[in-house]
Description:
By secondary structure, the protein is an all-alpha fold. The protein has 20 helices and no strands.
Amino acid sequence: MKKQIVIIGLFLLSSFTVMAQNSNSGGMNHNDSLAIDLYQNEQYDKAEEVLRNEIKRLDNAGAKQDSDYFFRLYFLAKCQGYQQKFDAAIVSAQKAVDLYGKNVRKTDEDYALYLDNLAFQLSGAEKYDQAETYGKEALRLYESFGKNDEDMSPVLLHLAEIYACNNKPAEAIKYQLRALNILKKEYGEHSKEYTDEAAYLQDYYERNGENDKAKKLEERIKLLIQETEDGVVDLPPMVKFTSPAVAKDHEKDMLRYIDYLYGHTLQDSKIENCASYIMDWTAASDAVKVFFGPVAEKLTGASNAGLAYMVAYAAGCDEYALKYGEGEPCFEMFMVGVARALDYYQANKHLTGEIPFNEDLYKVLEKDEDKFQKKLRELYDEEQKVMKNAQANKMKVGERIYFEEKTDKKSKKKKK
Length: 416
């Protein structure tokens, strides 16, 4: 079983990598991608060298007023900071702030991002009073946008750390609590993002002499970590998707539900709600159009038990649309949807029974990835013919009622 999941996982990884490169081709060059890879692998010195060359190239091209130039300076400062080169990092971060403020504006999220980075680098150099000034200005800007989301949490966390380092633990506690409320909403209390930052709050409580709160929090963190190891995952609350606007407001939550689906079998107690959330979101959203044609039906084996694989197919299409901003039916979306459905099938076929169509498709993938893609292309071309002859805009998830009735008639069973 593990081998089967690994094979599909590698196929998806390579496919997503290619699609990511294609989706970024307009604004990123090879050196940008290289710098990001080096940064993510913590090779900050090499990333710095690549970025310096890119900045020099833009200098020579007279592109100092270009947004790419500002961002590379910001990125350069982060690489320098992680190497403890704080004086150099401050220069780079300050230059990004000054140039962006002069050539673009001082009232948007990017400017707040650059201010936060400057505050962070100043803190690394132990220039805490200056760091406070820029950190508070970054936060003021974010607050002026009426935002209280994932983008604001790093600003709050950095400001809390600055205050803690500047011997102001009471202020640090205030901002750390605000950040934790956001992280709890965005990722859940059991997430590593939440528990890692909660440990800093414990430290701030201790610095402020609030030892009882620190002890309680320490015990709570241990419990959350243990529950996570036991498989507990937080999911956002269920939502009634009454419009595309409501669906748009919950796109990040949708990705969390998709991740949960892929990570749990049909025996999981939350999987039914998870499937309902995914299908209802897909029906309401205008960010994606999922076409349920002959292949989606074949993936289910025309059985009620197999409908789980139609959910996995829809989730794969949704995942593609949300990650790459392409919601119209296309081969890449279809490919990810089918691959995700096969992945889910491999993990659950002992519960639903084997489906010949899925078995045959997986055998092709196991033997030759190129032949698998060729087979998917053939299936997609067939789907296109059906789509052209159907009212594709009506073949969204709302039509699953028709599909269930159809399969019920075949199996001569009526759903209660």
